Amino acid sequence: MHNKNSTLVESYSKLYDVRKIREDFPILKIMVHGKPLVYLDNAATTQKPQYVIDKTNNYYEKYNANIHRGVHALSQEATEAFESSRIIIKNFINALGKNEIIFTRGTTESINLVASSYGRKNIKEGDEIIISTMEHHSNIVPWQMLCAEKNAKLRIIPINEEGEIIFEEFEKMINEKTKFVSVVYASNSLGNVNPVKKIISLAHSYNIPVMLDAAQAVNHLKIDVQQLDCDFLAFSGHKLYGPTGIGILYGKVNHLEAMPPYQGGGDMISKVTFEETTYNELPHKFEAGTPDIAGAIGLGAAIEYIEKIGLENIAYHENILLEYATKAVSDLQGLRIIGTAKEKIGVLSFHFENVHPHDVGTFLDFEGVAIRTGHHCTQPLMRRFGVPATSRASFGMYNTIEEVDVLVNGLKKILEVFG
Ligand code: 7TS
Questions:
Q1: Is residue 153 within 8 Å of 129, Cβ to Cβ?
Q2: In whole angstroms, what is the distance from residue 312 CA to residue 258 CA?
Q3: How far apart are CA 157 and CA 132, in angstroms?
């Protein structure tokens, strides 16, 4: 499952000190129901290191001001911090320019922006948009709404029993009617990593743009948008050890230039008269109104923090936890792992034959263990696997083997009580 590249192993074992990393996250010291918190709900949101909290607070304490509009010192300082964050993000995903980085509220808003702006302009009656079976609702509903408005058709790439996209079915599905493809890079419910490079290459051979939902990929896999050659990519700050309420839309500059604004208001204009408005240049054309300034600064700080530890090291650590946990739960009676693809991020979804996931979640909570139970905003995927919900443990950079043991012991107790 993990990359056994020797330099990586060496750098990981030399540099990766999970105890020291845990010290950076104040919340990890709290007790829940009298037990130490074991936080295994990182796919829902990650905890924040002190560095991110400080950088965010610092803005409010020392230079709170609106951006892009004041000549006074505080406004200039805030603008500089906000725009520096954009450059950190541009470098993090290797975008060509900072004008390709749009601040949004998160993955959901980024996808809605593309569906509304690119979609409304380019999708016509009879066109087809392709997504996959494992999409989060935020990569289903905006396209469904667009299809309903335009009388277009949404087509769904099927998956196999392991939870992997059946690429041959995608090959059969794509045709001259296809006008857009939007797929998840790594699934929040299954953990599998999709063959996005292959999907993009095939779509591009038909001149079809591709959007990637990278909400779960961005904190596990090194993303290089130029190498991927994706047309759009979305992610959220809060899954990347950054604040909530802030996220990114990456778009190739030629698409963004040609797209109409998503929202109208302050900052997105160049000149307004009652007769006519001209729009600001990129990226501001898509950033109407006062943004989450502290959030953007916090997201930049989160990336700085991650880069200090090394994304490859974090991914390697999470893969060790995933392998260990997968092996440990495989022996539990009546437990079925949902999502058994070869390439996975640190997500372990499972279903007990005779125990409802909500009972699993509630029982574990009393052991101090936080996991997510439910449909994970992927109801069609749950239907595909014939389960109403799953229990999902998802790992972050600060989790330990001992924490996995607490989870597994909790599951054993559940079997004794309910089994
Ligand atoms: N796409 C994927 C793959 C996700 O995992 C999520 C959030 C989203 C989109 C939406 O992100 P947002 O930040 O705009 O809300 N996933 C989850 C989850 O798995 N549990 O809670 C939120």
A1: yes
A2: 36
A3: 4
How would you class 330 by CB atoms within 10 Å of its CB: exposed for 0-12, middle for 13-18, buried for 19 or more?
exposed
Number of domains in the chain: 2
Do 111 and 182 meet the contact criterion of CB atoms below 8 Å apart?
yes
Query: Cβ(273)–Cβ(88) under 8 Å?
Result: no
Instruction: Summarize pLDDT for 251-295 with one digit per residue, the tens.
Output: 999 999 999 999 999 999 999 999 999 999 999 999 999 999 999
In this structure, the residue with its CA closest to atom 6 of ligand 1 is 215
SS3 sequence, 23-53?
HCCHHHHCEECCEECEECECCCCCCCCHHHH
For the question of whether the overall pTM of this predicted structure is more than 0.85, the answer is yes
Ligand 1 atom nearest to 372, measured from its CA: 20
Under 8 Å between Cβ of 178 and 207:
no
Give the integer Cα–Cα distance in Å for 16 and 11: 8
Q: Are residues 271 and 407 in the same domain?
A: no
- Cα(235) to centroid(ligand 1), Å: 9
Nearest in space to 42 (alpha carbons), one of 411, 400, 393, 363: 393
Buried b (16+ CB within 10 A) or exposed e, 271-290: eeeeeeeebbebbbbbbbee
Q: Do 21 and 398 form a contact (C-beta atoms < 8 A)?
A: yes
Q: Which domain holds residue 232?
A: 53-307
Give yes or no for residue 43 CB within 6 A of ligand 1: yes
**Are 113 and 103 a contacting pair, CB within 8 Å?**
no
The tens digit of pLDDT for each residue in 325-355 reads 999 999 999 999 999 999 999 999 999 988 9
Do 260 and 177 fall within a single domain?
yes
